[in-house]
Structure formats: C-alpha cells, structure tokens
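Dear H.,

Thanks for agreeing to be a second pair of eyes. The structure we're designing against is below in token form, covering all 343 positions.
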C-alpha cells in the first residue's frame, strides 16, 4: 500500500520554483521587476555563461532594512499587498505574489545586499543556499539592493539538465531585459554578458533613445511615432513602429505592452502587421514598441505569471484601434503606397 505523506517546505519550494523559475531569464525577470517596483532610477544586470553561472541585478531603489531583507526570502512574503482585497482593487506593482525571492533562493545560491534609502547607515547581506538562510551580516554599501544568484538549479539536477547552450539562455535574458528597458525609458538599464556591455539606456525618458540603445542606430532611425487616443476600449496607443523596409523574419521585435506591462499577444501583433498591408514582404515582421492604455477593469493581464497573456473584454475593438493607429502613423509618414489593408 502506498502511504500519503506531506511534502516538506524545501520540496514544496522546489516544485513551486519549477512553475515560476524555468531558466536564467525567469530569474532576471523577477529581479528586474522587483527593482522597478522599488522605484529604481538605475538597474544594472550582469550575467555570466548565459546566466547559468551568475546573475546579478543591482539597483538604487528603496532598499530594505535587515528585518525586511530576511523576511523577503521567506515564503509568501510581500510588501505589496496584504489581502485579496488589495488584489481585486488592482495592484500598481509588477510583483505581488511574494514568491520570487523565496523560490529563486530555493534553487540556487543567492546573496542579497541591501540598504534602505533612509534610516540606516549600514546595509545587510543575507546569504541563502538551497532555501536556507546561512548568514546575515552587516555590509557597507550605498542605498539600494543587489541580488546575486549563482549556480542556478544546483540542487535540482533534472532542471539544470534542461538548460540550453549559454548563447540560447543569454538570448532569452537579452529579450527580457530589452523589454523592460524599452518600456521604462526613464530608468537607466544596462545589460552586461561575460564582461561585455550589451546595451545601456540613458534613463532620460526618451523612448527613441531607449530604442537606439537597445536595437541600434539603423533600427532607431527607421522608427516612427504612433500616437492615438481612440474612442472605445483603448484610451491611448503610443509608441514606435519601423518603416516597412526595416523588418526581421521572426516576431520577437514586435513588443506590445498593456498598462505598462509586457504582453505576448498574437492578436495585437497581427493587428500591427496588418496595418502595413501589402507593404510588408511575406513572413517579415516590423519592429514595434507599442503601449496600450486601457481601463484596468476591461482587461486581465494577470492570467498567469509566466505566460504574459492578456484578455480584453472587447478584443476586436482593441485590435481594430491598434491597426488603425499604426496605419495612420504609416500614412502620415508616406510609408504606405495604398491604404488597402492586406487580405
Ligand atoms: P513580490 O515582488 O511578489 O512582493 P518577491 O519575492 O519578488 O515578492 O519580493 C519580496 C519582497 O521583497 C517585496 O515585496 C519587497 O518588499 C522586497 N524586495 C524584493 N526585491 C527588492 C528590491 N530590489 N528592492 C527593495 N525591496 C525588494
Ligand atoms: Mg517580485
């Protein structure tokens, strides 16, 4: 007869980690979101070997005192909501589940160095190994937080085995950090891989400047502004799209955001593509960085922490508005030969 037993806390944490932390890029995503939530003006991301050896995210945000730094790695601790009512009221932060640091700590060796912006002239270093806090000590540092994660999945060999080549893992990291850098031009965000700076945005608030840092000059100069305030379910559509000649074969450079949050939404991508009509060669995709503002109660962006899915109450009205806004921008710049939509 098989016996039913309860799982211990560390096993539960490792299983939970499998849900949220799939690869180095998932760690980077959680840490960068925390830095943004902490109000950072500057975020420096450093990785080695695609993030499989080392991931470090340093910020100049609000920081934590010793008690909070220790609490942050415990299970389901968050400073962002205190009850389900806060959730239903709509949260203005990226994270609120209070599980990221706990789960990352369960499947790696993690060090948090942090010092609050006010009220402490010394910082705290918390070391975590496979979920156990092994050391808490004072450390001298500037206000802000640095989280260092090494040996990801060292204690979950099955998961470690599924990691891809460093170059592939780094491509995922690059995509994630690029997404946040494009969405937050007022924050200086840098990415360094194996001692090479991949990009660094200035944090001056200029969207085109951020595109220039992340995608380079050729792409940036091909981008035109999209700016619309349609009636209906979208209150504003803003951002940049490339001219029809500046394209790639994959969809990864079509980035869409809803109320500031990146979403992977095929319906929005298709709407952007169809605005170009026949101007776009078959199987080519433009560069796009497009921000949609919609009333929070008409959209669900919290469908799943990892899938980045989105559900609109009035999907076709939303996609029509996006297509119209992009087409109008292209027409304004004389970039469409005819206004006939593609098929
Ligand atoms: P969540 O982001 O869902 O609250 P996390 O596990 O990611 O959960 O973080 C737990 C808590 O630790 C946060 O609510 C926040 O109070 C604190 N924290 C995490 N990262 C930072 C940071 N970079 N700066 C300041 N506080 C942080
Ligand atoms: Mg978080």
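And this is the sequence the design step returned. I haven't edited it by hand at all.
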């Amino acid at each position: 007869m098989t016996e039913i037993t309860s799982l211990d806390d560390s096993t539960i944490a490792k299983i939970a980690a499998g849900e949220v932390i799939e690869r180095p890029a998932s760690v980077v995503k959680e840490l960068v979101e925390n830095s943004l939530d902490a109000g950072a003006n500057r975020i420096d991301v450093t990785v080695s070997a695609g993030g499989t050896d080392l991931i470090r995210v340093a910020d100049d945000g609000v920081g934590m005192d010793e008690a909070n730094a220790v609490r942050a790695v415990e299970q389901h601790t968050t400073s962002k909501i205190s009850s389900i009512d806060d959730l239903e009221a709509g949260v203005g932060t990226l994270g609120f589940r209070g599980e990221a640091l706990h789960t990352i700590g369960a499947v790696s060796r993690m060090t948090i160095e942090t010092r609050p912006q006010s009220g402490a002239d010394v910082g705290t270093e918390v070391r975590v190994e496979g979920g156990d806090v092994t050391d808490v000590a004072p450390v001298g540092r500037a206000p802000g937080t640095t989280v260092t994660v090494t040996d990801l999945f060292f204690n979950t060999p099955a998961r470690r085995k599924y990691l891809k080549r460093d170059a592939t893992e780094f491509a995922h990291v690059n995509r994630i950090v690029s997404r946040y850098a494009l969405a937050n031009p007022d924050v200086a965000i840098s990415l360094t891989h194996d001692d090479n700076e991949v990009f660094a945005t200035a944090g001056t608030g200029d969207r085109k400047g951020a595109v220039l840092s992340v995608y380079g000059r050729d792409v940036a100069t091909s981008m035109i502004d999209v700016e619309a305030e349609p009636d209906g379910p979208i209150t504003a559509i803003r951002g940049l799209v490339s001219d029809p000649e500046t394209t790639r074969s994959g969809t990864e450079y079509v980035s869409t955001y809803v109320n500031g949050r990146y979403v992977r939404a095929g319906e929005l991508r298709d709407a952007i593509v169809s605005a170009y009509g026949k101007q776009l060669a078959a199987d080519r995709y433009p560069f796009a960085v497009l921000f949609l503002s919609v009333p929070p109660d008409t959209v669900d962006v919290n469908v799943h922490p990892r899938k980045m899915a989105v559900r609109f109450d009035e999907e076709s009205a939303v996609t029509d508005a996006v297509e119209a806004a992009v087409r109008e921008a292209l027409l304004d710049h004389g970039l469409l030969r005819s206004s006939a939509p593609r098929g």
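Two observations from my side: Residues 30, 33-34, 95, 100 surround magnesium ion (ligand 2) (CB under 6 Å). The mean pLDDT is 89.

Warmly,
E.
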